[in-house]
Amino acid sequence: MSKNSKNSLIIYGIFSLTLIYYEVIFKARVLVLHFDIALFRAVLFALTYSVIVLFVIKFFKAKTVVYIFYSIFGIALFIYFNQEIYESWFGGFFSVSAMGAGKEGLAFIGDYFESFRLGQIFYFIPLAIIITAHKLGWINFEIEYNGLKQPLVLILVFVGGMSISLSTISQEVNIETESEIVYTEHDLYIYLFSSQSAVNKFGLLTYTYRDIMNIFLKDPLTENEYEVLLENYFDNRPDHSINTYQNLLEDKNLILIMAESLDTFAINEELTPNLWFLKNNYAYFENYYSPLHYRSTADTEFMVQTSIFPDKNVTLTMEEYMDNTFPYTLPKMFKQEGYSTYSFHNYTDYFYPRTDFHLNTLGYDAYYGSEELGMLDNPPEGAIINNHQWQSDLELMEKAVPYFINDSKFFVNMLTVSGHFRYNDKHNIALSHEQTVLDYEADMGIELDDQIFWYLAANIELDLAIGHLMDELVAANKMDDTVIMIFGDHYAYGIKEDSIWEYDTIKDDYDELDLHNVPMILVSDHYLLDEPVENYMSSIDIIPTVANLFGLQLDYQKVFGMDAFSNDEHIVRFADMSYVSKDFKYDNLTEEYEIYNESIVPEYLIQVNFKILNDYKYNLLLLEYDYFKEDEEE
Predict the structure, then answer these.
(1) Nearest to 463 by CA among 491, 432, 441
(2) HSE (side-chain half, CA atoms, 13 Å) at 428
(3) How far apart are CA 253 and CA 543, in angstroms?
(4) pLDDT tens digit string along 64-98?
(5) Are residues 7 and 109 in the same domain?
(6) Is residue 611 included in any domain, yes or no?
(7) 334 and 547 Cβ atoms separated by less than 8 Å
(8) pLDDT at 108 over 70
(9) Residue 369 located in a structural domain
């Protein structure tokens, strides 16, 4: 073997072994490591990609090869290291198509560094070994081509390796199903409808490659053809079934409160007595979930206000589709019934363009952010803020109530912020309630986890705000005519999961899906709504549930949520395509089913999988092609 070929083989070995090492470590740390076909496939892809890297760098002289060599390793290290951090935050993987939130991301640079874990040092081991070997002279970068034969051979090897790797991706459905729509591993490889599934089945490297390639993926159909598909899809969806809760709260006022990071363990008899009282005396939805999506609060807000799932392929759904037509938003439907509609939030538009979205897209009569309420000015455009001073929920309520309390019929949307992480002694709202939690610790004879301590302190402010709202409604003689709906926008992901499982007595320990079970309270004087509600529901279901209770004019076939009181099957869907219901659960990470009803067979759950994927596809098409625009113009 010539010296050139020997050097090339060593370089190839370093690339391929390092990429295989990264895939194995990443699966072990982030996903589930099984020695199965998925791991074998990831190894094949790594071997194949290393061939094409070698093919390219052999065109250059040794000095340039060194720079390219270390650059490639730096990029690989960056991808694996940061995707682990991203997954720990959002339960999925970053997509290049969602790039664009740089300023907002820099606001949480401190949390990024706090996310580092000791085990992540494993990602640096290959680079340390390579640098050492390079300094000892064990790696020679003299690998430049000396003829046409070598590049031709490498191209043939790459094509062969890629063919073998792709041949392991099934295009068949391995189980009989009655579903008219089926999705295969090959569809997942092409369209990446679940980042977690794609990484699990193909490896992070292939996911990244496909994610980049999908930027250039062209639609196979025309816009008119997609409109026909969407029309057929909606026509074939089940309509709303009449139930005993229909029109139950007709003509009542509604105050909808989406509480920042309100989690099950925030409701405490001593620390949050107002929430505790409401939970135990009115309708508490025991199985309400608020699945975490890419842009957390903003994506939950989008689902709550439109009953449409966010697009995980864009930076921010509410901004990307701000000019779309959404005829079935909460304010638009309430306005049709003669209500005045308001939206309030005690923070600025720094992260999300709420002012435009709420007024122009959703259709609220008025939107009052922290600047309009005289609480906090909007920062200069382009400003980067690292130390956010979260505002008082109590002050929000004190300032907001006078705007609507004297209206004859009102629908009010409130977004609170006092419960926002970081949970430490720098949280300005939490600090004001430090002594209350210290007294609680002393009375209970306990010592709380530090994050739990400051989280509970922050949520005392929300409880005071709820108390003030109730007092004002009673004083204005509006309590009997008003319904209050309180729910968490997502679980308290600013707290370590182990700390949540240790402290929370409601969530199932070490159940990743159950983490997303958060409070939902419906406060009403109707006797049918004074007991716990067992039905499963999530953020996407709020519009059809409210429409049913208040008798709003909603075309139930053209939203993606379901009335929580209907007699249909209720399934909570997560961003990674996992799902849970009273009868079964599917964890897309482990690809494991749990069935609690003996009448349910595994084949049925395969059909549920296909239906969820199909709904997701049409949900994206509805957004991309602004499906409702033509209806409004007519």
Answers:
(1) 432
(2) 8
(3) 15
(4) 999 999 999 999 999 999 999 888 877 778 888 76
(5) yes
(6) no
(7) no
(8) no
(9) yes
Residue 605 domain-assigned? no
Q: What is the spatial distance between Cα 183 and Cα 170, in angstroms, rounded to a whole number?
A: 10
Q: Which of 567, 592, 621 marks a domain boundary?
A: 567
| pLDDT number for residue 634 | 45
> pLDDT: is 205 or 378 the higher one?
205
In a domain, 175, yes or no: no
Give me the phi and psi of 590, to 5 degrees please: -90, -10
H or E stretch covering 411: strand 410-415
- Taking residue 226's Cβ as centre, other Cβ atoms within 10 Å add up to 18
Band the pLDDT of 180: cuts 50, 70, 90. Answer: low
Clarify whether residues 352 and 443 are in a common domain: yes
Report cis status (omega within 30 of 0) of the bond before 422.
yes
Query: Among 496, 489, 320, which residue's Cα sits nearest to residue 414?
Result: 489
- What pLDDT is recorded for position 414? 98
Tell me how far apart the alpha carbons of residues 416 and 347 are, in angstroms, rounded to a whole number.
8
Q: How many CB atoms are closer than 10 A to CB 331?
A: 24
Distance CA 195, CA 92 (A): 6
Q: What is the C-alpha to C-alpha distance for residues 57 and 54, in angstroms, rounded to an integer?
A: 5
**Nearest-CA neighbor of 423 among 362, 372, 499, 363?**
499
pLDDT in tens, 466-514: 999 999 999 999 999 999 999 999 999 999 999 999 999 999 888 999 9
Q: Which of 508, 540, 567 is the last residue of a domain?
A: 567
Counted domains in the chain? 2
Max Cα distance, the chain (Å): 93
Parent domain of 433: 246-567
| Contact call for residues 460 and 266 (beta carbons, < 8 A) | no
Are residues 163 and 262 both part of a single domain? Answer: no
Measured in residues, the chain has a length of 634
Q: Which residues pair with 341 in a beta bridge?
A: 411
Answer whether 451's CB lies under 8 Å from 495's CB. yes
pLDDT number for residue 430 = 98
Task: Tell me the two tokens of residue 459.
Answer: 């949520």
CB 390 within 8 A of CB 418: yes
Please give the DSSP secondary-structure letter assigned to residue 262: -
Rounded mean pLDDT of the chain? 92
SS3 state of residue 616:
helix
pLDDT at 631: 55
Distance CA 452, CA 444 (A): 15
> What is the full DSSP assignment across 481-509?
GEEEEEEESS--TTS-HHHHHHH-SSSPT
Check which CATH number belongs to the domain holding 251 and give it.
3.40.720.10
CB 16 within 8 A of CB 47: yes
* pLDDT for residue 3 is more than 50: yes
Closest to 419 measured CA to CA, from 410, 411, 427:
427
How many CB atoms are closer than 10 A to CB 472? 17
User: Strand, helix or coil at 526?
Assistant: coil
> Residue 176: which region, alpha, beta or left (left: phi > 0; alpha: psi -120 to 50)?
beta
What would the two tokens of residue 502 be?
A: 């240790």
Provide mean pLDDT across the span 314-334: 96
Residue in the structure block whose two tokens are 């939130």: 101
